[in-house]
Amino acid sequence: MKDDIRNGTKRSFEEQDRVFYDGYWIKAYRVPADTLSAKKRLIEALTRRLFNHVEHGINIPGFRLDEARRAFAAEMDPRKIRIKGAMLAGALFNRATDVFRKVVEIQAMGIEIRSDNDLMRQCGEYLQEALSLGTMVLHRSGEEGIDELWGEPFKAFAFPIEDFYKSRYVKIAMTMRAIDDIRAELISAFRGNAMFAGIDDVVEAFANAAKARSETLNTDADIFDVWAQFVVAGEGLASFDPTLRARPTMAERQRAQDGLQLLHDGKDLVFFITRARVPMPKTTRAFIERCQSYASGAAALERVGATEAGATRAAPRRAHASSNNLAPTRT
Fold it and tell me: What is d(CA 23, CA 287) in angstroms, rounded to the nearest whole number?
């Protein structure tokens, strides 16, 4: 039973090492040695990844930190305060990375750098301040912030690398849970909907590919196959073609269009979550509510359709019909 397995348990499945966290067996990687050099590489990678997922325009170079701070302090417009706060946070992250890079260079010269060194203290202060501004930073989609991702560079600095890796596995498990929640709601939304018959298998394939991508590092040799499968599965979901009857009503046409939009938005959300490897709870909750609303609307449409069909059978046949209304329509 999964409930009996402790978090952090490691096992090998089909010659692949995996570690168990919160219901998922996640692909495990070797933890680098806990050195300043390894921390520098990790913080640099995490900072690059951070800017890759957040809104544009906040990747301010570290040498412009003072300018960014003055601009933030002088701003009075609440809307601009958020944006300039995000820009200041970006400058702080980059300044911290610059300082840490110099610390490693000094250490490489044979000079001992202790944890209470002034440069190390400055680096920690920059990261801590950047973290405090993280709520002002939005995901690139503009939907919400991603605090879990924003705090990773600071955690990599403040904690041993092994502890940082453990926290990453927890976040990957949370990501997989979010993907499974979206998968379940999408399948439920289209259950019994004849226009979207067969969508279950397409959604399942996409969710499985997304979970595989979320646990695979870009440096892994498997990334070529994993990423290709993820993209192909997403394209399969986005290109799904609902089947309409020969003479669909306007309501049926609208339901088909709404369903397609739901699939497209679900694909985008899963891509955002999977690539960042952290959940987006606010956006996910809103999407789940949309799935539930769509399912309720589809059920109502089925009832209306049944009533209209009965009325049509009871009504006298018309003498003339437009040939356009007889042509099958697909959206």
Answer: 23
Radius of gyration (C-alpha) of the chain in whole angstroms: 26
Residue count (the chain): 331
CA 289 to chain centre: 18
Taking the alpha carbons of 133, 136, 139, 145 in that order, is the dihedral positive or negative?
positive
Cβ-based burial of 168 (10 A; exposed 0-12, middle 13-18, buried ≥19) = buried
For 320, the token pair is: 């003339």
- Report in angstroms the alpha-carbon separations of 127 from 25, 100, 122, 242, 298: 32, 11, 9, 49, 49
Q: What is the pLDDT of residues 63-78, one digit of tens each?
A: 999 999 999 999 999 9
Q: Please tell me the predicted confidence (pLDDT) of residue 45.
A: 86
Confidence at residue 227, expressed as pLDDT on a 0 to 100 scale = 97
pTM of the model: 0.79
